[in-house]
Predict the structure.
Amino acid sequence: MVSSDTMAGVPAIRPATAPRFGAPEDYGARLADADFWAPYAAAALHRHGFPAEDLTAGFSGTYPTLLAGDVVVKLFGWFPGWAESYAAERAANALVAACPGLCPAVRATGRLYDRPAPWPYLIFTRLRGTAWRDVELPPRRRYAGAADLGRALRGVHALAGSGAGLLPDWLATARPGAAARHHKWGILPPALVDEIDEFLDGFAPLAPVLVHADVTEDHVFVTPTGELDGIIDWADAMRTDPYYELGALHLGCFAGDRSLLRAFVEGYGWPVDDGFARHAMQVALMHRFDLFAGVRDLTARAGGLAELSTLLWSII
């Protein structure tokens, strides 16, 4: 059963009820189910005059994303924090539009329903590159791509703006609960977790800048020859210490490869001194999400957090 309405003068057909889920596991099981989300994405597309044939699932980290020709539809709802994520993605894309070609252009925005479950959406131009995770590049090309990414993110970090709509600065309140979060995640060995509070002593955040905050191997897109095509998923963007950008980038996108990190900081022009590794490790330990699952082999053999920071972050 469907109902119809009109937004911006364009008739739209949509399912009669908004998506509902009994538990996070049910929502997660549907994230990449293009057939389930297609009627909702089609309603958004038709509303704005975009064709909705051959809808396929795109990358869905937290929110459902569908591909339709040269555009992408991203739907926000149900999952805790959806309203903040939607606002942050809109705000970040408005700011980063000053860096042409870096993030997908927003083509349209709206909502499918009235409150309390409006299910807002964003329609983006589709990037034509390949996610870093899936691209096959020789080492020289990968290093060039990392340097290219460094230059691009330096431009993002230099953008001015109030930060209205972005997520709040996570690091402003992250330190007291850092050890407890790592105990819950269970990735770092308990002996290392026990060192966290002491290791964070003396931490002094740098002046906040605009950060993407989740530059993973799924969010960086490159051309077949390794040039940066763009960065997707700005829903975690905030203004905070620039080192916050390095956590997901190095431990996720670069899989802890310090040669790629070195290429990135050289492309960026990031000042690297004797305190670089410790500060990067401190910020990574306070991140919103666990970053260490992909480098378990290093965490298992490190004799302490100081040694682990050297193994992960030392590039001088």
User: Anything to note?
Assistant: The CA atoms of residues 156 and 295 lie 27 Å apart. The first strand starts at residue 2 and ends at 7.
